[in-house]
Amino acid sequence: MFGRLFGKKQGDKNPQPNPEEAVLVYLDCTGLPENVYEECDLATLEDRLIKVIERDGLGEFDGNEIGPTEATLFMYGPDAERLFAGVEQTLRAYPLCQGARVVIRHGGPNSEERELRL
Length: 118
Description:
five-stranded antiparallel beta sheet; single chain
């Protein structure tokens, strides 16, 4: 009964993707060449990421957290691998992302994830 109310079809073998899949980008705020910090800023990077994510329907950019040595960018969507594939070129092209650590998480917190360096 609840399945009919909420749109789940009986025998549906393809569950809906998890909207909590994530791409988390950890940027180095202290170890890059000084000219990178002078010429690049977080707002420009975020604007570029938002544009790609919205244009391609990949999910959402959910903001940042800035600490003393690193900044974290939070992006969420139904398919973390597709989300990363969509934003990867933007991240690799922006100097502020040099050496960034990227976590691609397949589900909510504590789910399977993979990590890479840009």
